[in-house]
Amino acid sequence: MSEEFKSLLQTYQRGLNEAKLDLIRSAFTDDAMVIGQAFPTTTGIEAILALYTDFFSKLDFNVQFNLLEQEVSGDLGYIRTHSNGTITPKGQKTADGESNREIFVLKRIQGTWKFHRYIFNVEVAEER
Where in this chain does the record put each SnoaL-like domain (predicted)? Predict the structure, then answer.
């Protein structure tokens, strides 16, 4: 499973960093859901593509995802990731980097793994 999940994550990363909606579409199920900090919940591939179209019109992404954990049970699984990089408003200089933490729930449809639910938020430094 690890290689399939890594490949899917890399496809999504390329879609994000290269602003390619076809790659974003290929990564998600038709009834997927995106739940992101500071954004309304987005449900269904058409709404998700509209969300990313808006993102790509305003922002440039240079983000790397690191796979931290994975679990599979039948046709469902999840991965927990950590991402870091930059998300820069178009026409501006690259800002300081940011880090996020993510959970992707994956679903196997006709033998192919896709993102079914995607939840992310900004990483908060732990107090010691």
Answer: 11-113
Q: Answer whether residue 7 is part of any domain.
A: yes
Model confidence pTM above 0.90:
yes
| CATH number for position 100 | 3.10.450.50
**Contact present, 8 and 114 (Cβ < 8 Å):** yes
In a domain, 127, yes or no: no
Read off the pLDDT of residues 49-74 as tens digits, 9 standing for 90 and up: 999 999 999 999 999 999 999 999 99
Question: Do 109 and 29 touch, CB atoms closer than 8 A?
Answer: yes
Give residue for tokens 């954990």: 69
40, two tokens = 């309304």
Indicate the number of domains in the chain: 1
Q: Which residues form the domain of 52?
A: 2-122
